[in-house]
What does this fold into?
Amino acid sequence: MAAPFDLSDDTVIVVIGTGAGGGVLSNELAQRGVSVVALEAGGRYLPEDYVNDEWESFGQLAWLDPRTTSGDWRVARDFSGLPAWIVKAVGGTTTHWAGASIRFQDHEWKAATTYGPVQGANLLDWPIGAEEMAPWYDLAEKKLGVTRTNDIPGLPGCNNYKVFEAGAKALGYKEVHTGRMAINSQDYDGRLACQQTGFCFQGCKWGAKWSAAYTDIPRGEATGNLEVRERAHVARILHDDAGKVTGVEYFDADGNLQMQKARAVCVAGNSFESPRLLLNSASSMFPDGLANSSGQVGRNYMRHMTGSVYGVFDKPVKMWRGTTMAGIIQDEARHDPSRGFVGGYELETLALGLPFMAAFLDPGSWGREFTTALDSYENMAGMWIVGEDMPQETNRVTLNHEVQDQYGLPVANVHFSDHPNDIAMRNHAYRQGIAVYEAVGATRTFPTPPYPSTHNLGTNRMSENPRDGVVNKWGQTHDIANLFVSDGSQFTTGAAENPTLTIVALAIRQADHIAGELSRGNL
Amino acid sequence: MIETRPRKGLTRRALLSRSMAAGASLVVGAGFVAGSDAAWALETQALRPETMATLIQMARDIYPHDHLADEYYAIAVKGYDTAEAAEGIEAGIAGLNAAAQGKGHADYLGISWERDRVDILRSMEDSAFFQQIRGGLVTGLYNQKAVWPLFGYEGESFSQGGYIDRGFDDINWL
Ligand SMILES: Cc1cc2nc3c(=O)[nH]c(=O)nc-3n(C[C@H](O)[C@H](O)[C@H](O)COP(=O)(O)OP(=O)(O)OC[C@H]3O[C@@H](n4cnc5c(N)ncnc54)[C@H](O)[C@@H]3O)c2cc1C
Ligand code: SF4
It folds into this structure.
């Protein structure tokens, strides 16, 4: 049957969420002839709808449904209702993302083995490794048109990058370049080259940056095998007496409850909503939530060890001109415990506009110490730190029954506290970032605290042994054969790299597996 | 609508003749606050004009930028001049004045040194009132498109074709 599909059609695969995981999975299944209904809580916005204005764009695209926070992270104090900065729209957070697309280092698939025991950390090796993932990374890089792969040239360096590069070289760093970016340095795949507009976080109006919203989603729809229902918020996953998933209940655009039957369900709502949905689907058969016999649903929440460093110079930089994330230093990404921590981190340039800089440079601070920093906005350069953080069982997403969303469903509470390894790594990164800018004459530097999380990982993690995690190496839940997890919540550990290339590679691989299982009659 | 531009027909002399100095650069008259250079005036609806003048000074003391005229601070806080918000704001400003009086000043606006005003703000920075005003200013002040150029920020760039031909890599001092 071709799209649109009937609510009672129980042959379709239902995908929940259409971001990096769900959007790619939906298209890849559709390309393989599988019928898919993708349910997306957000609306549909395309390049002509995006706005070059930080707060207006935030209001247009960000996930603003209520959430609550706890733990000793500063986000819980400064942005208590906004633990994450992610998107609610067709295409998910790939509308907002900066495009940095780097592979895990080989050893990062085996963090427990490589790092050895780390007190308080719930480290585990992934049940898959570098060799197995290599061909899927190849496909992901081709799909995204990643620069510096497949003979695609790197992007040109903008002002913010030039400052960063000069400082890095002065410090003796070797692996410094304009990044592997899912941003076109030349026309690619029917999309324009980057025009250096500088609003990558607000949705690329040129379509130069890859986003599922205007690539995978329309291509999947063009096959006739994919129906995307926007403004469809899934409330609950249903199952039968045999413990198999049978469909989902969702609120449609008019707020009416609908039921879509399914042959299998793939959850890809990002790392807060995916576990929330499994927990909210608790039943008498599964009182702790679906796929939660291990008790690991919602646990091991990771957000990457992050932070930023801004430097002020005596002359203009104008960092807002050009790609938001315009270059990388990779020398610190290695695992080298002599630095006082396990794992590594990347330094990547970052630019914020004046409105976001005021909100995020040092949330809550005021007075001349703060305002003289903004007075030098034109002379500022910026970088972001992204490193591996330790999975901890107590960092977790739970249901907060005291607070309900617009549908009366308990919201996600996000509890997070840094591990001592995270703190040691952040302090090292602050020192190195500051040194980079001081090497080119910074007169003042700012070790800026982490923003609301943009990378959200680990809350339905992959494990060899069903006791240790929620899904197996295919993203299939250990407990329920026709229930899959398809987003960043599958991550066993976070590695130092930005996660999306890996989410996309896993989604392509999962689509191939599900299509294979369907044709073998196993699903 | 609240005007932040000089009211029609109100000359500088006429305005100044109908008002009293309130702080360094503000004047207060019946139903309005204005810049002492009469470049702008704000008619108040629900708040007392003295309260509005104090609020504007407080906003500047929280986020002082010497190159920003008071007008931008006035725009940033004028949203509190509503029937719903007025009671809380009047109470908050009364508290601020009481703190100033406790230190021997006539009121908050009567304190000449920024340092002394900031001491008072520091002592109340955990209060809900202070946090309301400070939090509101983060967008109220810095998200005004008119202030962006005063910090060098260029804002929207798509309509001009981005910066590919307009200096994305024009840094010349490295
Ligand atoms: C500002 C910013 C910059 C970033 N830059 C980079 C970068 O440079 N490199 C990188 O690798 N990563 C980057 N990221 C992270 C990247 O965007 C995410 O890792 C990625 O999009 C996550 O994919 P996902 O499929 O897990 O979730 P998402 O892409 O967030 O998609 C989840 C979707 O599910 C929908 N949904 C949730 N719950 C429900 C429900 N109950 N019913 C229906 N739909 C639902 C949501 O509305 C959303 O559309 C960035 C993120 C941000 C915010
Ligand atoms: S800088 Fe390039 S990638 Fe970013 S929004 Fe502009 S054109 Fe798109």
Observations:
- Strands of chain B lie at 19-22, 26-29, 32-35, 41-43.
- The interface with chain A takes residues 62-65, 67, 118, 125, 134, 138-139, 141-143, 147-148, 151-158, 161-164, 166-171, 173-174 of chain B (CB under 8 Å).
- Residues A 183, 194-200, 204, 206, 208-209, 323; B 162 surround iron/sulfur cluster (ligand 2) (CB under 6 Å).
